[in-house]
Structure formats: C-alpha cells, structure tokens
Automatic annotation (TrEMBL):
Subcellular locations according to the entry: Cytoplasm
Gene: rsmH
Name of the featured protein: Ribosomal RNA small subunit methyltransferase H
Role noted for this protein: Specifically methylates the N4 position of cytidine in position 1402 (C1402) of 16S rRNA.
UniProt keyword annotations, A-Z: Cytoplasm, Methyltransferase, rRNA processing, S-adenosyl-L-methionine, Transferase
InterPro entries cross-referenced by the UniProt entry: RsmH, SAM-dep_MeTrfase_MraW_recog, SAM-dependent_MTases_sf
Length: 316
C-alpha cells in the first residue's frame, strides 16, 4: 500500500520554524515527508535536513519523496527519543529547528494489517516500529485488570474504563483476544447502548490508550522534550503538532517551564533560585487548522500546533 498521509498544519508549521536557508533542521516524526519536503525547498546547498522515523514504510516513502534534495537530506530509522545521540553520531551538536507531528499516521490507520484501526478486523498489532516484539495483543491478553483500567482511564480518558477492563479480562479467560474486531465487540458490550449514541465509535478511546501504552508515546515525549529544546541554537525553534489533550498538556507545560523556570516564591522581589529561561513560547494559544483544512482533511480536527523559540543565556 502506498504511504499516503496528508500533513496537518503544513504551512503553519513550516512558517513557524522561521527557516534559515543554511540551517540544520530535524523532523523527529518524518512520516511520508510532507513537512520535510517543504522545509527542504527553503534550504540552500549549505543547509541540511535530518528525518527520523521508526516506521520502515515511512522511511521508504520519505526516501523517495526527498531523493531530489540529494546530500542535503539524511534519513534515520529510529525513535525521536534518540535524536541527540543520532545527531552526535553524525557530528551535529546543535540544530536550528525541530518538528514533531505526533500520533498515528493516515497510512498506519488505513493499512489494515497494522492493527491500528477499530474500523476493520485485523490482528491486534499497533506497533509503530515493527522491529519491536511486544504488540497490542500482548497488552490485551497479559495486563492485569487494574493495569488495563489504568491505561484506558489515563490514556483513553474513557469513563467506562473500569467496565471495559473487566470485560476484556472476562473474555480472554475463555480464549485469547486476537483481533481488533474481537476487541471492538467486547468494548461495545462494556458500554451502555445509550452512551454509544452521538459519541463516535465506542472503541476509539480504548484503541488510543492501548496504542499510547504500547509505543510509550507520552513517556517518550515527556522525557525528551527538554533535551530537544537544549539541542536548539539561539533563536532556533521547535514546532509540535499534537492530536489529543494528553500530548498537548505535556507540550504546553514543558514549554511554559522552559520559558519561566523560576521556583522563587511569588512575593520575592527578585529571582534568587538561579534558574535561567531557555527561551519563549511563540504560541500563547495553540494554532488550529483553518476551515479549508478541516473540510479537506477530517483527521486534522483535533490538531494543535505549539511553537517554542530557544534563547541562549536569557534571564527570567
């Protein structure tokens, strides 16, 4: 299947980078290379672009799409949590801009055998990196009822998390749960019918929760965002597109902390804690898709773009 993914907030993200033609730019979630292509168009022969993705299909598609930019482009199969070490292996200590387009791609959703979608019956997989052994099937069939409840409640924000976890455990005692279709039916029976009307597919939140847990999506974002800000040159920018409240909350909080890390009590006349601001938040409110994009790409409706600009040796 051809790797198709319509890049969300494309113009807003590329403009948000404030690109220098001779700069170094990194896309930590390369995908099919939509954002990457637009960045590369603005680079001259001294500029360089590094694309990182853990999905082999994305690497293949982006390699074809970006082939015309020649040696300006380097593509690496890895998780963006390893960005710093992967860059240093190539002699790069600082960059001028970073993009993260979080979540699952249209290609991954639409490729049935990847097991991301609750709309088609397929093996329970959901791995963004298929080199990984653990799959969604392992989570569904081996996590305790309390662990399932926790991830569905915390990552899916589903008010029926307790009942869904209970039903999963009851059903797997009869036989292992192997497919997305089986899991969907279990979830349907766990949620009262009156609550299934006008709330979208009943399995949506549980599938999201399992995917996030399996791929450590929030953990990776939370643990590496400070490090990525440190990778930026003075006036360098990081642009992050999120698709649900949990991701956005992490990005908003870490950006705010890097802008104002002062821990002094509010009544202190001057800062004495010694914490230095790393820069400023460019987007006091997130940038949202416009009406035209919403009409053309329904999957953009929950997207939010936040931008942070690095300032070196900035006082709070």
């Amino acid at each position: 299947m051809e790797f198709k993914h319509k890049s969300v907030l494309l113009e807003e993200t590329v403009n948000g980078l404030n690109i220098k033609p001779d700069g170094i730019y990194v896309d930590g979630t390369l995908g099919g290379g939509g954002h990457a292509e637009e960045v590369c168009k603005q680079l001259n022969d001294k500029g360089s672009f590094i694309g990182i993705d853990q999905d082999a299909a994305a690497i293949e598609a982006a390699s074809v799409r970006l082939a015309g930019f020649g040696e300006r482009v380097t593509i690496i199969r890895s998780n963006y949590c390893d960005m710093k070490s992967r860059l240093r292996e190539r002699g790069i200590d600082k960059v001028d801009g970073i993009i993260l387009d979080l979540g699952v791609s249209s290609y991954q959703l639409d490729t049935a055998e990847r097991g991301f979608s609750y709309r088609v019956d397929a093996p329970l997989d959901m791995r963004m990196d298929r080199r990984q052994e653990k799959t969604a099937r392992d989570i569904v069939n081996t996590y305790s009822e309390m662990e399932l409840f926790r991830i569905i409640r915390d990552y899916g924000e589903d008010k029926f998390a307790k009942n869904i976890a209970k039903h999963i455990v009851m059903e797997r005692e009869k036989a292992p749960i192997e497919t997305t279709g089986q899991l969907c039916e279990i979830i349907r029976h766990a949620i009262p019918m009156k609550f299934q009307k006008n709330t979208g597919h009943p399995a949506k939140r549980t599938f999201q929760a399992i995917r996030i847990e399996l791929n450590r999506e929030l953990e990776v974002l939370r643990d590496t965002l400070d490090e990525m800000i440190e990778l930026l040159n003075d006036n360098g920018r990081i642009c992050i597109i999120t698709f649900h409240s949990l991701e956005d909350r992490i990005v908003k909080g870490i950006f705010k902390k890097n802008e104002n890390p002062c821990t002094c009590p509010s009544h202190f006349p001057v800062c004495v804690c010694g914490n230095v601001s790393k820069g400023k938040v460019i987007t006091k409110k997130p940038i949202l898709p416009g009406e035209q994009e919403l009409e053309e790409n329904s999957r953009s409706k929950s997207a939010k773009l936040r931008i942070f600009e690095r300032h070196v040796n900035t006082k709070v």
